[in-house]
Amino acid sequence: MTSRLRRFALPLAAPLILGLGGCATSVSDTAPPAAAATLSPAEALKAKAAAGGATDLVASEGPDGGTILGGKLDGQQFALAFPAGWNGGEGLVYAHGYSTPGTPVEVAANPVGDKSPSKTMGFAYADGVAVGHSAYAKDGLGVETGIKSTKRLRDLLASMGAGKVYAVGDSMGGGIVEALLEMYPGQFAGGVARCGVVDDWSTLVAQLYDMRASYNFLTKGTPYALPGEQDIRVSALPVATNQAEVWGQFMRMGAPVIALFNAAGKNPSGPEARIIRQVAAIGGFEPDPGALAFPLLTASLGASDIAATAGGQPYDNTGKVYASDTMTAAEAKALNAGIQRVSANPAAVAYLARWHRATGRISDPLVTMHNTIDSLVPYAQETALEAKVKASGRSQYLASYGVPPQRMPLPIGGVEAYTHCGFTPEQSKAAWEALHGWVRTGKRPAASAVK
Question: Which whole number is the average pLDDT over 290-306?
Fold first, then answer.
């Protein structure tokens, strides 16, 4: 998921960059055959990309003598970075995470520049690999469009000569990587899925909605209630129209959650602390500012988009009995009597299963990396995927790494909290090297390869 929430740890948005150029340089019918050899490396790459179906192509100088190539594929903006001397070989496509509705869909014009969403692209580029990413057709829940856009970019690289193409993704993009390996066996050399929804979107959506529903009930009539629409089937606030408005919505939605934690800090045995423990237990998250704020903001600002994308309501709690050891019997009874009940649309449930619920039937190397405590995508997604891969008899294709959680101050309120996708540069590089070495040598990486 990489909304502005994701961007706290790993920025997803990038400046608007649309292709402004034209077609590749053509060779006159009267010119001798050798004239083609006079094409510059950039023009040669443009010609190959045009032949692969790309339009609106613009080439510029990249780091260390390389070439940055921007354009569109099927109307979606993309950007690729080719190391100097690249003439086929290896490529890498990056799948970004969730973006809050209202966030621009464009990706960074330079995949290895300062505004790159992933250091992994820079590490691969330094290894001589062509790297790039594609915009999705929509913001918000974008698993379907992310899979299609990323696969389309993979096919372009293959048409330009890449014999091996890797897939790397974070958060929602991590789940996209797992799905790509399942859906297109043999077409990717391997993948790295980081902090990803690698098992089941239905599970995560249920956790997010459960948290919003229980938080609404438990904070009703208090200063800590979330603003806006309380019906969990729709978004709490209208869709933002620009990035500044998105940020303002985060501040507005996050303020009561931070106030709740501040009050709990002053009285650890008081009612505010009990609300925190109960909401966290119901959702399956840590009783932590980030692990409440991030899921609540995602559910509150993304509900309408999720329902629209899925073609109906994908969440159902009509028969659920809420209980945990954080509640007394009386508290549990009151919650079950008063919490909002929602029934699902079967078509929407099927949509989430299609885009995407893992089967575990991978047949290409997959490296996964996840913080053992993550504030938005629980580590349980990793353990569930491991179980499915093992049940499918495919464990030889999976190398899974749980790394220690990271904490940092939230941009909302400044309190320290667990992060989402909180990886060090060293861990990011190690994950890439684990996959790259695995594919090149055929040797599965060691259990200590990423730590």
Answer: 98
Give CA–CA dist 370/348, Å, rounded. Answer: 28
88 neighbors 163 (Cβ within 8 angstroms): yes
| Beta strand ranges found along 30-118 (DSSP E) | 55-61, 67-73, 76-82, 89-95
- Answer yes or no: are the C-beta atoms of 111 and 79 closer than 8 Å: yes
- What mean pLDDT is reported for the chain? 92
Contact 388, 359 (CB under 8 A): yes
The answer to whether 408 and 337 have CB atoms below 8 angstroms apart is: no
Angle, vertex CA 449, rays to CA 443 and CA 451, nearest 5: 160
Residue 17 has pLDDT above 70, yes or no: no
**Greatest alpha-carbon span in the chain:** 89
**C-alpha distances out from residue 427 to 20, 163, 170, 378, 421, Å:** 37, 27, 13, 19, 11
CA dihedral 37, 43, 47, 50 (to 10 degrees): 180
DSSP symbols for 233-288: TS-SSPPPSSHHHHHHHHHHHHHHHHHHHHHHHH-TTSHHHHHHHHHHHHHT--SS
Distance CA 131, CA 46 (A): 15
Mind listing the pLDDT tens digit for each residue in 83-119? 999 999 999 999 999 999 999 999 999 999 999 999 9
CA 72 to CA 384: how far, in whole Å? 36
Q: Where are the alpha helices (DSSP H) in 395-443?
A: 425-441
* pLDDT tens column, 339-363: 999 999 999 999 999 999 999 999 9
Assess whether pLDDT exceeds 70 at residue 26. no
**How far is residue 130's CA from residue 185's CA, in Å, rounded to a whole number?**
21
Six token digits for residue 306: 């999720």
Rounded CA gap, 108 and 286, in Å? 33
| Dist. CA 67–CA 118, nearest whole Å | 18
What one-character DSSP code corresponds to residue 6?
H
For the record, the structure tokens of 137 come out as 């057709």
Q: Give the three-state DSSP class for 99.
A: strand
The structure tokens listed for 293 are 């704020």
Stated pTM of the model: 0.91
Quote the CA–CA distance of 223 and 228 in Å, as a whole number.
Answer: 13
